[in-house]
Design brief:
mainly alpha; three-stranded antiparallel beta sheet; 2 helices; binds zinc ion
Length: 104
């Protein structure tokens, strides 16, 4: 990397211009219009992004509480009938993910 000499400013500018001139003026104009349209669309999105952020922030404490309650329910799981699946050698509780051995 260090092998490359720093270009002087004029040389660098000339090289950048030569790349730009590769496309004709109409192409460049059309592209710039699209870039402006892109900027407008992104600007249109801004208030929605702010709204989305507000929604995420409002959801967070509720999500935290849901997770807290869910963890308590797992800890105190009574293995309700409708969560039980018989796996042949054991019964799986789909709520707490416990494998429960059954005596036969
Ligand atoms: Zn369970």
């Amino acid at each position: 990397m260090g092998r490359r000499k720093l270009l002087d400013e004029d040389q660098a500018k000339k090289e950048l211009d030569s790349i730009t001139k590769f496309s004709d003026k109409n192409q460049r104009l059309a592209w710039r219009r699209k870039r402006n349209r892109m900027d407008d669309l992104l600007k249109k999105m801004e208030p929605l992004n702010e709204e989305a952020l507000k929604v995420i922030l409002a959801k967070q404490p509720i999500m935290d509480e849901i997770e807290h309650v869910r963890q308590q329910m797992i800890k105190e799981c009574v293995h309700p009938r409708d969560y039980l699946v018989h796996k042949g050698t054991h019964v799986l509780c789909k709520f707490c993910r416990s494998k429960i051995k059954v005596k036969s």
